[in-house]
Predict the structure.
Amino acid sequence: MTDNSNQFLDALKEMQGVEVGNIVNVEVLSVEDGQIAVGVENAGVEGVITKREFTNDRNADLNQLVKPGDKFEALVIRRAGGDKENGEFFFSVTRLKEREAYKELEKVFEEGKTVEGTVTGAVRGGLLVDVGTRGFLPASLISNRYVSDLKPYIGKKMNLKITEIDPNKNRLILSRKDLIEKEREEAFENVASQLVVGDTVEGKVSRLTGFGAFVDVGGVDGLVHISEISYKHVDKPSDVLKAGQDVKVKVIGIDDDRHRISLSIKQTLPSPFEEATEGLHEGDIIEGEVKTLTSFGAFVEVADGIQGLVHVSEIANKHVDKPSDVLKVGQTVKVKVLSVDPSDRRISLSIKQADPNAAKSENSRPRRRQDSVADKYMNDNDNGFALGDIIGDQLKDKD
């Protein structure tokens, strides 16, 4: 056998030693036309690494990343087809890194640990994340609330949980929502243990929705329902509040099972009743307008929108069968303030005691009896009385 034949056989053996799936050491021969020409060390085999098989950065310049003489490991991915390609191979660095990354990620997945990743891009339905290999973070798993804009996440680093991994299908699904929920539960337990219903604390508006405002109190968001923002009607929370605004809130509910804190802004402020009756004191004699007549008494407006009850026994120094026998709606009368109860928003009045000439011996029946009767018709509405009872008694009077 000639020397040339022996050299050919040796070269053939060397080429046959390089197989698809092998990890080999290569040396850069040249960088041109968007690809890297390499030779397998000690094998006499040459091949090509395309740009996409060397880096995931589409904007990268290969000439800035490698130069002739550089050496590194690569994965043999396939044999080049066609006679003109002289039986060369195609190699990949990115797939080798992915293979190694998957080994580490499978271990992380089995142990239930987290992995840090960098968001490299946004696609329909979620984010692409680099965790040593490319993973997918679905939009529904980015946060514990709906995320509409994915762009702000690009370039950010975040800790993630692996929910699904399949190296054979190059499938890696990640989640941030699970971690946020866990952190939220821990934060809730910490904050809730320091709060008591009725506490008034400082907070900051974190976000606004159509149904209310979320306020950060010590690292946990509590909800101020739209009905608890103001004593006045609020169409939209954004009409009166803005994100980042400092507010004082009252804790009105803590739900340990659902990890929710209910807050109120309006309950930290004086109510319309308190504002209107601020200068009103027991014993004051003032004028008011009769607004409603019932079988048990008369409702007299003593401030804008604020009414007090003159019980039938406090209308006159003589017996009164029906308030409508001696009073009429719209009539202006003098009344004496018997009591003001801000907590229950109740005002008790007397017409007969506002008359300085009234005989003390003919005063109304015992006060205790009056209060017990009036309480029957009082609730926690601003006027202090049940509207249904008022209307019902008016209907009885007509009968």
